[in-house]
Design brief:
This protein has about 450 residues and is mainly beta. It has one domain: 7 Propeller (Methylamine Dehydrogenase, Chain H). It is about 5% helix and about 45% strand.
Length: about 450
Amino acid sequence: MNDTELEAWLVARFRTAPTPEPPPNLQAAVRDDQIRASSQAQSARPSRMWGLARPRRALGGMVALAFTLVLAAGLLAVVVIRPSQSTGPASPGIAWQPRIQVAGPGIIFGPYLATVGGRLYMVSTSSAADGTESTVVRSASDGKTWEQISAPGAFEKDGPRFFAQGISDDGKGGLIVVGGLPGGEAESIVPAAWHSTDGRTWARAQVGTPALARMSAVTARPGAIVAIGDGRVVVNSAATGADQSVNQMYAWFSSDGNAWSQVVLPDSSGFIPSAISSWGGGFAAIAQLDGITLSSSVWTSADGRTWQKSPQDFARFTPTAMAGFGGRLVAVGNHQDSQSTAAGFVPASWSSTDGRTWVESRASARQVATGFGDVAVVGATLVAIGANYMGQAAVTLQVGGPTPVPTPAANVWVSPDGTTWRLLTEDPSLIVGSYLNTHVAGLGTRAVVATYGEVYFGDLTP
């Protein structure tokens, strides 16, 4: 059983809520593009499975970690431990409000969030019982009251089924949604981007690239919109002389959201993109090596057109998200120790003021095998969210057989600088389960968390 098969097997064991089966051609395309297809609604990082948000490979470290788990009675048993630890003072904190049901079951990509002009926007792709997919954009002025603003079929007007992978402002008050379309061949994906000035009417952009790939994340600053993505390319192996398929990363640039140009990221063969962000120095993207080697790298660009790879690699780090925080870049994810122990799977972040020299930080968590899932700027604070992503289906071994363990509440951290993290007091109502496709965004001093059809929101408390 290879890495991909083991990861898929773990997901099948850990996820419980079924979702409609996507059509075979989209399954094949997604599988070939390293977005792991699964018949479970809550399958997941980045790395990539159905329901994955930006592509997120949070299970990357868990593949190795799986070998340390306990096998009993033919079932994979995970011993969930809640170590007693201090979470520090209650302030600053977040006063979470009761969750809001925004969408029904069936989400397979998203929800992804963006804040534009004092409003929140959410995009997601869902699969209906008859196997058809639809992508919709919703909006809220307060994070509580959501309405669908995209017209029915707005992203399906060209026929092929579009699947969303990210949303961003366009640098001048409009919106960009990126993703992919099943290609004409059995296992191919075509990159796709959609532009809107108001979130209601959408036009498909001219991506203009020969590469069969998908756009997996997008960000912008005034005058420049940049997306990253990846696809499979055939190269000749120097070791064997035979052709082989490897992953290749790309960046797309647009000044207006309508016409795009593409470049290959230097030295990116074998990498899978995780996240992209704009910041004071331009743009930055982070990616993880495709395979069982846990290592990540960063690429930076001053203008979104010309890219350089950072000389510093992040060993045993699985990235999930990235944020620009003033003059600093912050990438979050998890660190896995070399022994692949459960206790060695911890929340970790890397920060930099120049995109080339990076400093690692780690944070405490309430459960083992917990990592940072996403991060956003909320007010003048960084807010990160994460969970024990095995928690929903975890069991403890007892005489007479395994016993289900209640799903633990999400872990929420705040940071004033991206280097020191404070774990906030547990809120039992904040449950994201094992759904890796959970995102956080800021609306002023309000934090908004979107997960599988549900939204939580809360204001920062002084």
